[in-house]
Write a structure and sequence with these properties.
By secondary structure, the protein is of the alpha+beta class. It has helices spanning 13-17, 57-63, 71-79, 83-91, 102-112, 117-131, 148-151, 156-161, 168-179, 184-187, 192-200, 207-216, 228-237, 245-256, 260-275, and strands spanning 2-7, 25-28, 31-36, 39-46, 49-54, 134-137, 140-143. The strands form 2 sheets. It has a 5-stranded antiparallel beta sheet with strand order 1-5-4-3-2. A two-stranded antiparallel ribbon has the order 6-7. Helix 3 runs antiparallel to helix 4 (83-91) and helix 11 packs across helix 12 (207-216). It binds a DNA duplex (13 and 12 nucleotides) through helix 5, helix 6, helix 12 and helix 13.
Length: 277
DNA sequence: GTCCAGGTTTAGC
DNA sequence: GCTAAACATGGA
């Protein structure tokens, strides 16, 4: 068992998990079990620190983006002189943008469209249980996120039976694309605009999903996903009047540049925590 | 029962 | 190019 101990001020495990970047985690002991690809860790707060117990510390150090200094993002948010952003940044200063597996991020956010977070979690869990490789972490047995190759073996009816709704065919299409030429590693070499364009060629991937995959799978901070929550923030807190979400994304990326992604997470976390309070 | 969710696709102008 | 309806499901 390996252990990472990291100061909690800019690494709050609860905020990081509950800002909607990932869907595979659950409360456990005094913290959470977090699943990524075929790996698992146990994360909890202890005193002034956040502790990660796992079998692969190098993987999770990178996963939680612990090489990066997030204090500067909070300062940068303050410097924007926008009350709502500053408030959101201080509430969410412990949020970190994860370095997720590209395939997992892609399939997860295809499933996320027009769906509630608790239901997304349920679908992804059923998908992993049905098709993922069985693994052991300590006393915990779990299933890895299925590979594209494994997903491509099943048909639309299989996914419909798992409760994917109309997204069933998207999983079939994209898993086949990924096993027949489309390479996520290859498109990783493209600049963000071209990367997004390429992702949009996959059926089931629209602008919002492409932005999420770009941010959470490819760690492109010049991405700003606009969903119903951010749409609300835009209208209610930024006085925005555009209704075309592509234009809303462009507005924020023009304004926040390479800090767009993290600012978006601060705002998303802030807005949702108000509603769920 | 109605509304809504980390939207996208397709059809029709 | 744009707009509007259709799409499955289940929790609130």
């Amino acid at each position: 068992m390996e252990k990472i101990i990291y100061p909690s001020e800019f690494f709050d495990i609860k905020a990081t998990l509950e800002c909607g970047q990932l869907f595979r985690f659950r409360p456990h002991g005094r913290g959470y079990l977090v699943f990524s690809k075929d790996k698992c860790c146990y994360a909890y707060a202890e005193g002034e620190n956040t502790v990660i117990e796992c079998d692969d510390a190098e993987y999770f150090y990178n996963y939680f983006d612990l090489n990066k200094d997030y204090a500067e993002y909070v300062s940068a948010a303050d410097a924007e002189d926008t009350a709502i952003l500053s408030k959101a940044a201080h509430l969410g200063k412990g949020v970190r943008i994860l370095n997720q597996d590209k395939e997992e991020a892609l399939f997860s956010f295809i499933i996320s469209q027009n769906n509630h977070i608790p239901r997304i979690k349920g679908i992804i869990e059923r998908l992993s249980d049905a098709l993922g490789e069985k693994k052991i972490f300590g006393e915990t047995e779990y299933f890895a996120f299925p590979t594209a190759a494994r997903l491509a073996e099943k048909d639309k009816d299989f996914y419909a039976a798992l409760g994917l709704g109309y997204r069933d065919e998207y999983i079939v299409n994209v898993s086949n694309a990924l096993t027949h030429g489309y390479s996520l590693e290859a498109v990783a070499a493209l600049p963000t605009a071209e990367l997004k364009k390429s992702l949009l060629s996959l059926k089931g991937v629209g602008p919002k999903v492409a932005d999420c995959v770009s941010l959470f799978g490819f760690h492109r901070f010049d991405s700003f996903p606009v969903d119903t929550w951010i749409d609300k923030v835009y209208r209610e807190n930024f006085g925005g009047e555009e209704t075309d979400r592509k234009k809303i994304t462009a507005y924020f990326v023009n304004r926040f540049g390479d800090k767009s992604g993290i600012f978006q997470q601060y705002l998303f976390y802030y807005k949702r925590s108000l509603e769920n309070a």
